[in-house]
Amino acid sequence: MAGSNQVLRQVLNLLTKGSGFDQMRLISGGDGKCQCELTVEEEHTNRGGTLHGGMTATLVDSVSTVALMTTGPGLPGVSVDMNVTFMKSAKIGDDVIIDASTLKVGKTLAFLNVDLKLKKDGSLIAQGRHTKYLGNS
After folding, report:
1. What is the C-alpha separation between 8 and 26, in angstroms, rounded?
2. Name one GO cellular component term (predicted).
């Protein structure tokens, strides 16, 4: 498991390098899942001082892609649909847990779910759904 977490860290670093959230920390991953943590910094926020919606969508995209890469052929796929429902804000200094899981991998499509929660109380900040095209297998 330690070796696989190192590979996941490398993949995560490639996906996030220079994107404003390279401070994200991998907690665990494998078997279609990936869990990361991010401390909200000023660069992650909107004018209201809370986690920016675009940043949240990027977290959904990136962490779900890493979760998908822990399944079957390990390919990242191409996004065909993604939605994010926002339920609560996260402020500067808040630790956010990003928990992605692969719901289903079919012949050409994969379906993923991502929950973003405040670490301090487990309350749900946002939930994302991500569909990825895997190509013709």
Report:
1. 8
2. mitochondrion
Kind of pairing between the strands at 25-30 and 124-133: unpaired
Domain boundaries, position 117: 1-133
CATH number of the domain at 117, please: 3.10.129.10
How many structural domains compose the chain?
1
In this predicted model, what pLDDT tens digit does every residue of 24-59 receive, in sequence order? 899 999 999 999 999 999 999 999 999 999 999 999
Please give the model's pTM, rounded to 2 decimal places. Answer: 0.88
